[in-house]
Amino acid sequence: MKNIYKQSWLEERRDLFVKNVLRDFIHSYAFFLEIEKKYRDKGISFQGLDNWVGTQKDRGTLWVLKDTCHRLWKDIDPNNQPEPFFFDWMVGAIFHEAMKLKENVYMVDRYHPAYQVASTTTTYDWQENCQQFFEETLEDIQRGINRLEDLFVYAAEHLKSLLLTERNNSLLVQFMLEHKSDINKLWQKSGGLNQTLDAMFPSGLDEAYCMTGESYLEGSWYAEARMAFVEALKINPDCGEAKSGLRILEKRLKELAHMLEREYSLANSNQGQGHGLSDSETFATKSKYKMAGGLGFEPR
Prior knowledge:
Elements: H1 2-12, H2 14-41, H3 46-53, H4 61-73, H5 82-120, H6 127-163, H7 170-178, H8 180-186, H9 192-200, H10 206-218, H11 222-235, H12 240-272, H13 279-294
Helix pairs in contact: 2-4, 2-6, 2-7, 3-5, 4-5, 5-6, 7-10, 10-11, 10-12, 11-12, 12-13
């Protein structure tokens, strides 16, 4: 019974977790690129890596990404679903490689003074071993950076292939449209966001914008919903779904405007009869009134 409940809980939140995988992969990859640049320029510090990877009690972005992937895809059959299987594998490899890199960088940060002593004096018999150990650790850091670079590139392409099957995930599609610049950077060598969305929505990108508009509308993000439906109509002026979405939006805004008008009139009436509202209640009512006007509907 417990396993059935756990599976149901996961299925109900699956779309959110998949969206979070893309979000956290983008953040993790971007952070790695910063680390790599710092390493090439002047070296990296343990503190930055520690925040990126995290600990068991305080997980970093990369740790959260690894756990989410494992939660989603640890039990899948690689013969039937190779892309999520290999992506989960790649993320696990990235995480463990990052853990090794973090420990190696810590060793260098912690024992660099000892290395300097060993390389400038001839007092101790263990100097040569100390120098060799330190230099090998530096080489391990170099190999770790190179390996992480390759793993991230491979993982990004596996993620792209995986997401092509997620066209019905409105949270994912909304996130992709909201973060075009980041996603174009992620897949710049393979066509960027437009190529990915074209593959997900072969009948036209207006579908993607309509899906996003409906998601905004459901969450009462009316200004964003309007922009999404308008964008869909720019792509396809005959898009019936976008036109329908705008009609529903206009109807909801009119209803909201009428409701706020009644609230505002009631507030004024109560004040006139000596039943004044508190300053905070008056401010809240006026704010709602202005919001309706700001969306294009002035209460009469």
